[in-house]
């Protein structure tokens, strides 16, 4: 079985570009629905919850069929101890085509954040 080889299209735009507003809404709804019932922090349960949220978002984003975009979902949940949390992301960025969505969820027990990157590739 031969793998087909395609020539480069040299197309610099996507037919279906990364829509930040739609992804923001999707991330917020997923985080609120999954994390609202949480009443205490358990490390093993939070690790499974991070995986579930990430895979749910990944599946929903794949259904959106963002053309020529790599989608990266990062979910972090930490216990809330009245301390500050600082997070930073660093990467090479194309300001015209790449974008991201970010949401923070807090309650009395946890501090959770989710970042979805839409990175354009040729």
UniProtKB/TrEMBL annotation:
CDD domains: DLC-like_TCTEX1D. One of its GO terms (biological process) is microtubule-based movement. It comes from the Eukaryota. One of its GO terms (molecular function) is dynein intermediate chain binding. InterPro entries: Tctex-1-like, Tctex-1-like_sf. GO terms for cellular component: cytoplasm; cytoplasmic dynein complex. Belongs to the dynein light chain Tctex-type family. This is Uncharacterized protein. It comes from Melipona bicolor.
């Amino acid at each position: 079985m031969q793998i087909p080889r395609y020539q480069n299209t040299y197309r610099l735009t996507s037919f279906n570009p990364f829509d930040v507003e739609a992804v923001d809404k999707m991330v917020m709804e997923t985080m609120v629905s999954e994390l609202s019932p949480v009443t205490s922090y358990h490390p093993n349960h939070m690790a499974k919850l991070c995986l579930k949220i990430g895979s749910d978002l990944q599946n929903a984003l794949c259904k959106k069929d963002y053309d020529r975009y790599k989608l990266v979902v990062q979910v972090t949940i930490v216990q809330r101890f009245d301390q500050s949390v600082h997070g930073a992301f660093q990467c090479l960025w194309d300001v015209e085509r790449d974008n991201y969505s970010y949401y923070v969820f807090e309650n009395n027990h946890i501090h959770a954040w989710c970042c979805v990157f839409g990175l354009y590739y040729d």
